[in-house]
Amino acid sequence: MTPRSFLLTPELADYVRASSERPDDVAADLLAETAAMADRGEVPPTFQIAPEQGTFMQLLTRALGVRRAVEIGTFTGYSALCVARGLPDDGSLLCLDTSEEWTAVARRYWARAGLADRIELRLGDAHESLRALPAVQTFDLAFVDADKTGYADYVDQLHPRMTDGGVVLLDNTLRNGRVLDPQNDDDRALVELNAALAADPRWETVLLPLSDGLTMLRRR
Description:
This protein has helices at 10-18, 25-39, 51-64, 78-86, 100-112, 126-131, 151-158, 185-198; strands at residues 68-72, 92-97, 119-123, 139-144, 162-171, 203-208, 214-219.
């Protein structure tokens, strides 16, 4: 099943995809393999971003002239594939994740796309991996799609490591609509973070109704 926004009917989701640049064979095969893994219960079905979100992230990476990017939460590698494709030939993407099994799928597709030399994968606790990086302005773009209760810490840790005008993207910030009626700790963490970011002077902030909610932060 192709991931789609809860805000869209299946028909509208089909129309959105048909009206956007479509994934090539490598990206389509990665989406299909991940969907098959979800069908077999090997991965959570909600972890994959929608194809149109990947296209948006690739376009944004290229439009911003991103040279160095970081991703927190890589899963099977589709979002990283999209970001890496938006980078220049000498650009780089650092991916932080905990799963060797899921990221092994990612590595295969990055290699097939000819992008393995642009992507560095570090396995381990992402909070610790991020803290281990020099607290200097390094990244032009960051994408966060990991433990939701940890988002606030990721944002705080990313701020000194983003270049002036650097952009942070936070995934799942609408929580399938549950931000209006939080059901669990993940929901409540995102509700609190959304409110805090709207008033945070460090960032320009907009919550986009793309897929499951994509918050864009620009470092002032």
